[in-house]
User: What shape does this take?
Amino acid sequence: MAASSKSSQRAKDVVITLLALWSIVSLVVIVVWATSPDLKGSAQCRTELQEVTEKHEGAKVMFKKDREALEERVRTEQEKQDRQRAEILLLLGRLNATNVTLEECRQENLVLYGNISVLQENVEELRQTEANLTAQLRLQDEHIEALKQNVTETVHETTSCYSLKAAAESQMVAAQSQTKGCESREQYLKKQLQKCKEAEPEASQNSQQQDAAAPPTSKPPTDSAASPFSGILALTLLICSALHLIT
Assistant: This one.
């Protein structure tokens, strides 16, 4: 804008200089013609002087018009330059505001980049946590399967235990019945033994009498008659003891 103003001022000065030179040259020509009677006549000189004067006046008018036009053009250019300066100042203000906005955006972008980095780290941590939880769930599923297997085995073992208990109870009832039978048999045998003991003195007396009358070789049959009762009693006691141990 300053360069265009200087060029306009320079063109104006060149035009004014050319017009001034043209006016001076015209005056010199008029003076020369006026002072040279040998070259031209006075009437012709006056005519030419009048023409030159008219041309000079026309040149003055044209010069004035050109000057006014140039001044008007200069004023227009100055107004245009003023408007352009105002526009430039406005644009500079907008540019500064845009720069401030861009700086704010840059700061916001930096903050957003930081937030994105933090979010990416959080996502990575969540992925790792998900992987750990998946592994834990897999282990828990395996543990649950093992527990189910243990529970199944325990149920089977419990069922088996109940069956064994029922069988043991049946055996216990049978053993109790056998025990009662043995006890009854024991009481019976005790009674028989008591009877045998009561009958033994009479048998011994009879045997003594028979010994006195018979030869000495007849003594062993007495011992053989008493031994079956003692064997039966011992066998009965052993059976009862075994039944008591079983129950």
In short: Residues 42-213 form the longest helix (172 residues). The mean pLDDT is 77. Helices lie at 2-34, 42-213, 220-246. Residues 140 and 146 are 10 Å apart (CA to CA).
